[in-house]
Design a protein that fits this description.
The chain has ten helices and 14 strands. By secondary structure, the chain is of the alpha/beta class.
Length: 329
């Protein structure tokens, strides 16, 4: 098996590359490096700089590297930006996926793993979100992920592909400092950014119907997420000689952690003791979003191993590696 990993130099992608390569899988990376970092990749992993919308490049890469499966991670992924720039998100996320699938079908590749998101669900009012919970996305980003799932499954049915759609919940942490997230778009790095500037972290809303009034989310360590990709890729590879099919799974821990609990963990781990300030709720934030992880566990025997403290500690190590003066604050 040789896997093409699109977006493999990104935060999540580099973890997936490392997990699969360490496990002995042959991988090649396609990344335009708009947000990816080439230095995250092992030296022996080929990196092709380019776009999934470049059909000629895709044809050449798939043939030259004898690719037998694709892990598609490359996408625009900021919810707020997608509201402001929906045309960009539909062009990048949907048009690029369409070109990639056309190339995959033409090359005879038979396995396709799609990076989806819990954003496909919107804000369901349920205790645990299962894969059968109705999908009602509330952002263009979530819409493109849901439409991407539809397209992947349709192509699988029409062309005999074995497909998988992985719905990530809140990703955090780092397997190593050099693989850490370089952005400050998620709650943990947003807290770090404020604290290291000497500013109080912000909590948006403390009047939700939850035990401490703040939103509850399901956080998954990025190293666990990467290992989940390895488990799913091996499941797809194991379908050789059998009938193709589709797997749609949540990737989460099945446990909720409140924003205030994360803030307290961040203060403990960093030693930066500024108390968070509470601001108004943000539009679209639901009270609770926790995955049911039963399908991933039951069908593939995989469960997440790392907890919230390990996520915060490893994320802080990565933040300090990128911001050398952070610990001094």
């Amino acid at each position: 098996m040789t896997w093409l990993i699109t977006g493999g130099a990104g935060y999540i992608g580099a973890h997936v590359v490392r997990s699969m390569a360490v496990a002995g899988e042959r991988v090649v990376v396609l990344d335009d490096l708009s947000t990816g970092v080439a230095g995250r990749l092992p030296a022996d992993v080929p990196l092709i700089r380019g776009s999934v919308a470049d059909r000629a490049l895709l044809d050449e890469v798939l043939e030259r590297h004898a690719v037998t499966g694709v892990v598609h991670l490359a996408a625009k992924k900021q919810v707020g930006e997608s509201v402001e720039r929906p045309l960009l998100y539909y062009r990048e996320n949907m048009a690029g996926l369409t070109v990639l699938l056309e190339a995959v079908v033409a090359a005879g590749v038979r396995r396709f793993l799609f990076s989806s998101s819990a954003a496909v669900y919107g804000v369901p009012d349920v205790e645990l979100i299962t894969e059968d919970t109705p999908c009602l996305p509330i952002s263009p980003y979530g819409e493109t992920k849901l439409a991407g799932e539809w397209l992947v499954r349709a192509a699988g049915r029409a062309h005999g592909l074995s497909t998988a759609c992985l719905r990530y919940f809140n990703v955090a942490g780092a397997a190593a400092p050099e693989l850490a997230d370089t952005g400050a778009f998620n709650v943990i790095p947003m807290f770090f950014e404020r604290l290291t500037r000497g500013e109080a972290p912000r909590i948006f809303g403390d009047d939700y119907p939850t035990p401490d009034g703040t939103c509850i989310r399901d956080y998954i360590h990025v190293a666990d997420l990467a290992d989940a990709h390895l488990a799913v890729s091996r499941s797809l590879a194991g379908r050789d000689g059998g009938s193709p099919g589709d797997l749609t799974v949540n990737i989460g821990r099945g446990e909720g952690v409140s924003v205030r609990e994360i803030a307290d963990l961040v203060r403990e781990v960093t030693g930066l003791r500024l108390r968070p300030v509470v601001e108004a709720r943000r539009p679209g934030d639901g009270a609770k979003a926790v995955a049911s992880a039963a399908r991933m566990s039951g069908e593939l025997g995989w469960t997440a191993r790392r907890g919230a403290r390990e996520m915060v500690e490893s994320a802080w190590d990565g933040w300090c590696a990128q911001h050398p003066g952070a610990r001094a604050n």
